[in-house]
Amino acid sequence: MRAVIRRRWLVLVAIVVISAVSAYSARAIEVRFAFRNFFDYPTNPDVATVDRYHDYFEDPAGFVAIVIESRDVFDKQTLAYVATLTEALEPNPVFSHVRSLTNARAIRADGDSVDVGMLLPQLPRSPADSDKVRKIAADSRLLHRLLASEDSHATMVAAQLAVPPSSSTLPDLRRAIEIVDGVLWTHPPPLGIAIRVTGAPVLEVEASDALIFDQIVFTPIAILLIVVALWLAFRCIHGVAMPVIAISCAAIWTAGIYPWFGRPVDMVASTIPATLLVYGAVDPIFVLRRYLDKLRLGRAKEEAIIETYQELTLPCLLSSLTTAVGFAAFATLDLPIIVNFGAIMAIGVMLAFITTMVVLPVLLAILPVPPPLAISTRIATRIDRALAASWRWLARQRRKVVVTAAVLIIGGALVSARQTVSVYYTRILPPGTTEDDIRFLERQFVGVIRSAVFLEGPKDVMKQPKVLQAIAKISDVAASYPIVTAVVSVSDMVREMNRAFMSGDPKELRIPDSPNLTAQYLQMLDPADRQRLLTEDDARSHVMIFSMDQGTAAWRPMRDAVMATARAELAPYHVDVHMTEQSPAGFDALDALVYDVLRGFVTAFVLVLVLIAIVFRSIRIALISAVPNLVPVVACFVLLRVFGISLRVGTVLFLSVSVGGLFNTTIQLVARLRQQLAAHPELTPDAAIEDAVRDVGPPALYTAVILSLGFAIFGLSRFPDLRVFGLLASNTLLVAFVSDMMLSTTLLRVFYRWRKP
Amino acid sequence: MKLIALLSIAVGSTAFAGDPKPEAKLDAKTIVDKVVDADPFGMMDSTLSGRAVLHDKNHDERILEFRLDALRYKPGLSKSVTRFSAPADIAGVGFLQIMRDDADDDRFLYLPDLKKSRRIAGALRNNSFMGTDFSFADLDMRDLRESKATLNGTEKIGKFDYYKLDVAPTRSDTQYSRFVMWVRTDNFLVFKWEMYDKSKVLMKTYQASEMKRVDGHWYASKGRIENHREKHTTDMFLDNMKATKVADTEFTVNKLEKL
Q1: What does the pLDDT read at residue B122?
Q2: CA–CA separation, A608 vs A661, rounded Å?
């Protein structure tokens, strides 16, 4: 420390240079919400299946959908407009296909004839023509709810991106949306027709914009909160400016490192800046408080700095290390989204420790001594008096406190064990037009959740009647679930073809028993239609299952039943079955993410306890530390259970950020207690704890308030899950302070190995 | 262009010696009429056997084998029967087409397992010919017959000279907006044919790789058509070609169901 203070100007120049380089490097950070980020990582076997599946069948996530609403979408005016939009979009190379009612094919009987051509060879000339087309669309599983709503009030023009969103950049997606907007500008809807533009690219762009908006709002608010809290705590520019500069340096340095990880700022990573800023404020507050105490005791500036750091380097290192280890535990998991978060936060916390150890003393050494008001703040005096009084009361209620804590933890654990994991695909998105449009697609069309049963077998197997009948059975099982809006498979094509060749007899909507006939039906299909459902060698096919986004708890039973049926029905034909597509892969990964966060929390919690046991050389202290820090977590789980909120990414994410903060006060309390006992062995246990509470309590309260308010700002997020995360993290850290002041002190008093007088 | 040159060598390799000399100063309309009249796929006054090799975007393939009998019963109009022999499960499937100039063409499909034929309705001419990348309209060239054409000079590719034509189909039910064609000046067979959809996007490209003259009739005996949008291709091989008049009585529904 003396060396840092002696070379303060040189150190300052180094800090400025490192900060400038970091700021430059941070320019490469991309903010992007991409659903694929949740599941795309090398060790995830689902990714290879999804990619292989997309090699054979198209990536359905990549279309911009123009929803056209009118009194009757089968009337001539609406269909003419649909045709205009379709023809205007088709030439654009950004889109590989444009699908609409005006270029769809349909298989149907026409009297004694069979028609396998366009649904609309020409626009309807009369209401009777419109009704005929409406009936064909309603009767076909290949069209029903896919291109026209059940009530005929809405239809869709789907412009499929030539490059799927997973391989597109955000500007690419914006460009595709702009092209659609441009076409709508050039071809405005006629009177009586309303338009909405939606689809996965729109969703990703709007969610990414919401993330950017969150960053623009959160970071300044987090800084403002810290400034206000620091001002209230220290009432001087020093007290505000120095910690803010130190924290900002840590944040900038971390931002400079971020691009090295090669990942965009996603929903989880969007919590990093605010989290880091508020965590970074913890150590500087303890240092500044102790420095002011030293000045109050009459130490000279340099002496006060050195003494402060002599006393606080170890507890600050330990609390930073435990916080970093807590975050690093998440870096050992599988999912990159959480690994990235854990690694960056661990690095950021340690950088914050470094800035506390380097930037802060340099600033303290360079800047003049703070005014007397700051040195003897009345607020600190009042707080430590109140905390001391509360401890004296608690000391008399030790038994009750211990029993209450035990009941809380056991009861809470029992309640928490009954929680269900249920994640959502679209409900994690900000409410607003996009979310409304998605709900509209669920009500009127097939929704946005598409699962696929990918079938791979020997050559020619898919045209066998028994296999087609098995596929039909799989479709029927899926369709029996209320969350399923539509199911499409090659069996539907064959069934509809059979009905058409049997003069439209509804009873003939079935797979014929003749292998030759099924092969002949399939032979008639246009290559474009055929390869959407079947490979040319008839070895691969798929069942597309569209469903509403009602959480994985509702989706999993459907998946399990479908897969059980598929395996049982198709095993005799040596057909491998996989449930795949972005939604299932994402669902599995998001479910895994929830379990990963829970596992990561337990790992981090245990690691921190091990670290505490090593540093304090006491398993007893480690065990004592566990109890007060479990209480706030259990309290949050009880809250979730009481309000019927399922476990999902947003509702368990608080664990990953609070694990580091939970132990700070406990560590500071234990460290101070041991310092006091070492310096004053004559102190009674009650007096020693009271002294530790008086020293640690005020800065611990400031940090708890700052951390709590810092996380509370996520309540302003446009993402519902981030709002829940903010409120839970805020609650956890505030309860943790109360728990430390009540439980840590009581448990130390009861279980600490006190020297006998 | 290198590929075109190589292909043109292949195309030329089976060309007979003593090919007619290019006719001088033909206008675009005349050239198009001669292209239609040349009937490179044997849809008029021919019998032949064919093989279509279908490839999807993942290079999985399927092979169809068929026999075609065709009769020109009026100028520009024909009757044809296509009978499939492979793969085994579609063997016996027959397709009868009778082109009409005053109404929709008559088309009947015979599926042996149903033991009856069905009339195929609607605008089938734009549909795929039995799962290949050729539409019925591509094979019967009716979109060329009713079109406005512009001659954009000639190009020499390899050993041969080609007319370069820009053709705009005028039929209301066509799926194309434009064709760009390279037509051999000596036999009026299409060497390369770019087909643009109504949105003016290149939809399909046909390219001949072998031309054969049998009984004085030139056939595009090998060629590939590629659907760019679907990334799907069909290689078409014609064999056992015979330029002959098949009896009109062969082109009835009864015959279709009896064969």
Answers
A1: 60
A2: 11
Cβ of B58 within 8 Å of Cβ of A55? The answer is yes
Q: Which residues of B168-179 are buried (b: 16+ CB within 10 A; e: fewer)?
A: ebeeeebbbbbb
Q: What is the enclosing helix (H) or strand (E) of A84?
A: helix A76-89
**Residues spanned by the domain of A115:** 58-205
Residue for token digits 């709900």? A439
Residue of A nearest to B85 (CA): A520
- What single-letter amino acid sits at B105? D
CB contact under 8 A, B123 and A519: no
* A47-51, A55-59, A274-278: which is most confident: A47-51
Residues of A at the B interface (Cβ-Cβ below 8 Å)? 55-56, 87-88, 90-91, 96-97, 105, 110-118, 121, 463, 501, 512, 514-517, 519-520, 522-528, 530-531, 535-539
Does A713 fall in a domain?
A: yes
What's the CATH number where B93 sits? 2.50.20.10
Q: Which of A318, A302, A259 is nearest to A25 (CA)?
A: A259
> What confidence tens digit (pLDDT) does each residue in A535-545 have?
989 999 999 99
Of A33, A53, A66, A61, the residue nearest A165 (C-alpha): A61
Q: How many CA atoms lie within 13 A of A258 on its CB side?
A: 29
Evaluated on CA atoms B34, B37, B42, B45, the torsion sign reads negative
Over residues A684-707, mean pLDDT? 85
Of B60, B90, B133, the CB nearest to A520: B90
CB distance from B58 to chain A under 8 Å?
A: yes
Residue B5: pLDDT over 60: no
Interface contact A536-B56, CB threshold 8 A: yes
CATH number, domain at A64?
Answer: 3.30.70.1430
Domain count across chain B: 1
Q: Report chain A's mean pLDDT, rounded to a whole number.
A: 86
Token pair of A166 as six digits: 């997973």
- Distance, in Å, from the CA atom of A607 to the CA atom of A626, rounded to the nearest integer, reads 11
pLDDT in tens, A592-640: 888 888 888 888 888 889 988 988 888 999 999 998 898 888 888 888 8
Indicate the pTM of the whole model. Answer: 0.80
Q: Are residues A592 and A718 in the same domain?
A: yes
> How confident is the model over A214-223, as pLDDT tens digits?
888 888 887 8
Cα dihedral A254/A259/A264/A268 (nearest 10) = -20
A247 and A386 in a single domain? The answer is: yes
Inform me whether the pLDDT recorded for A669 exceeds 50.
yes
Q: How would residue B259 be classed by pLDDT, with cut points 50, 70 and 90?
A: low
Instruction: Answer yes or no: are the C-beta atoms of A629 and A736 closer than 8 Å.
Output: yes
ipTM over 0.95: no
Closest partner CB to A528 (pick from B89, B113, B230): B230
One domain, residues A552 and A598? no
Element (H, E) at B70: strand B61-74
Q: Do A501 and B114 touch (CB under 8 A)?
A: yes
Q: Which residues does chain B have within 8 Å of residue A539's beta carbon, measured at their own beta carbons?
A: 60
A-B interface: how many C-beta pairs under 8 angstroms? 122
